[in-house]
Amino acid sequence: MTMSTNHGSGPGAITPDGCSVEFYSLLPAMGEPSIVHNAVPEGASVLELGCGTGRILRPLAELGHPVVGVDESPAMLARIPGLPTVAARIEGLDLGRVFDAVLLASTMINTDPGQRREFLKTCRRHLGTDGVLIVQQTNPSWFETVEPSERTHDGIRLVLREVHRDGVRVDVVADYHVGDQIWTHAFSRHPITEDELAADLASARLRFDRWLVGNELTWFTARPE
Fold first, then answer.
1. How many domains does the chain have?
2. CB contact at 8 A, 123 and 204
3. What angle, rounded to 10 degrees, do the helices at 194-203 and 113-125 form?
4. Strand order in the sheet with 156-166
5. DSSP-derived pairing of the beta strands 169-178 and 67-71
6. What sign does the dihedral 43-138-49-186 (CA atoms) show?
7. For the whole model, what pTM was predicted?
8. Domain containing 170: what range?
């Protein structure tokens, strides 16, 4: 099966990339705010690209960071009252200012290579000279090991109903169960080799800095060249 676009279904508003606003509003933070907070100076300003319903953005604000969130879905941003947000696509975004840190979480970097490079250009555009980019990627080992499965976390049952490989790309259909509500999300993830990451960072005038979570190849920082 080949998926041309991400898509989703279920109760409430669905974003252009298939995410459920209702479902994402139920998701708790899962350690991400601490990872980001520990990677930046105290009180550093943070721009989060693709912030959704503020699952990471709100805790960062509570930790003392001036924050701005960007998402293409006004319905997502409506769930973050009281914090500055901008409804816009990431590609081509230019807010006319720079930040101490830019956050690209939720494994959005694992989109197709062309979009990934546009994302990184936007990240660089909003980084100060001494700024830091914080990125969450899908662990490279996932692409080899992921299979249909089921698990429950914080009352949310995640069912990976379908997993298809098309070359290096992995297409997934996932069902999310919360009580008697079910949302479905079909999405694709693209792996990133070490050489591809270095080249894509360089094309955006960035350089790899360090991994943030022990030996896990998931969270890393990059800095302006």
1. 2
2. yes
3. 50
4. 7-9, 181-189, 169-178, 156-166, 149-153
5. unpaired
6. negative
7. 0.94
8. 1-20+141-190
Same structural domain for residues 74 and 102?
Answer: yes
49 and 94 share one domain = yes
If asked whether residues 148 and 41 sit together in one domain, one would say no
CA dist 70 and 85 (Å) reads 6
Residues 85 and 70 in one domain: yes
Question: What is the CB neighbour count within 10 angstroms for residue 204?
Answer: 22
Domain identity same for 102 and 198: yes
CA distance 192 to 25: 29
**pLDDT tens sequence for the chain (225 residues):** 334 468 999 999 999 999 999 999 999 988 999 999 999 999 999 999 999 999 999 999 999 999 999 999 999 999 999 999 999 999 999 999 999 999 999 999 999 999 999 999 999 999 999 999 999 999 999 999 999 999 998 899 999 999 999 999 999 999 999 999 999 999 999 999 999 999 999 999 999 999 999 889 999 999 999
Dist. CA 58–CA 37, nearest whole Å: 12
